[in-house]
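Late entry, written up from scratch paper. The run itself happened at the end of the previous shift, but nothing got recorded in the book at the time, so transcribing now.
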Amino acid sequence: MTKPLLIAAAVVCGISLQANAATFAYISSPGDGLISQYRLDQSNGALSLIEQVSAGDQVNPMAITPDGKVLFAALRVKPFQVLGYRIDPKSGHLAPLSKAPLAESMAYLSTDRKGHYLLGASYGADTVSVQAIDKAYQPSANILTYKTGPHAHSLRTDPSNRFAYAGNLGADQVLQYRLDAKTGALTPIGRGYISVPSNTGPRHLAFSPNGKYLYVVGEMSGTVTAFSINDSTGALTQISVANGIPERLKLAHGEVRDARNNDLKDDPTPRIWAADLRISPDGKLLLMTERTSSSVSAFAVDPSTGHLSFLENYPVEEKQPRNIAFSPNGRWLLVTGEKSEKVGTYAVSDKGALKRVGEAASGKGALWIEVLQTSVE
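Output as recorded:
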């Protein structure tokens, strides 16, 4: 085949693959117990609501298996349980598949990088958990639990799948563990944690694509802290901190919240209340949500050193934005607002600037977002 024909064939192949690929977003809304399925057009950011599945009261954190075949969703009412849904690769439709108990009410859910274990973090019970997932995608009823300091808020494994880290908000610690691939057991690395300044409130986590760095958002400080990951031991070393709250927002330092004072109704002071943290697919941009000001802060990431620098803070239309998610191509950002009736799509510039380009109706109190790109053969 001549060179021009090779190029033409490659272009046709690329167009065909793009035409057969679909991008779906799944968003939970605990206020009405729904999981809403959306289709995202990665060419223009258009968002379309496809269907809504009734999962159950207070459906909240979710996780998609690494192979993209199953979505797990946790219910935060007794009896605490996780529901599994099979994802149709063509339509993205969710079909009930499995059900299993959870150790506690989970504020966070994830799987390890191989899809062998379901990981959870319970804010109210100060606990992280691990349970095996069998080949039929059934989570085990035998659950490993580990007590933490006050308010565990996340648990994720690193890209190598050898280590696991947890944001421990009330203790101002980032917990560090080694993951046993055969049993799922978590073993503390060193003393088991690395501390951050008082009243930081470590919450959600993000890893650099190369697995060398971990980023942690402080709910009460509005900062993002960067850590290097020791490749052999998994131990963390702090390397950088960046503040994502410009003075013009006029926000006081945040406070620890729980079910009794989540909205701080008796405190009229506008306070920092950061939530989610996401890294772009190319690893060069970090975005953080801040709920009180309904805004998103952008940070530049140096992929070679892991260091952070604050870029700018941008308002969003979604009130009290909880979770965000990048599209697989990194061009679009999905934003949910706990007090918004819409889910928004924003175009993302190289510097993190946001421009709203689409929207779709959301469920009540929409928050958790999982995005999946399928390739239909």
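The longest strand covers residues 186-195.
(Scratch paper discarded after transcription.)
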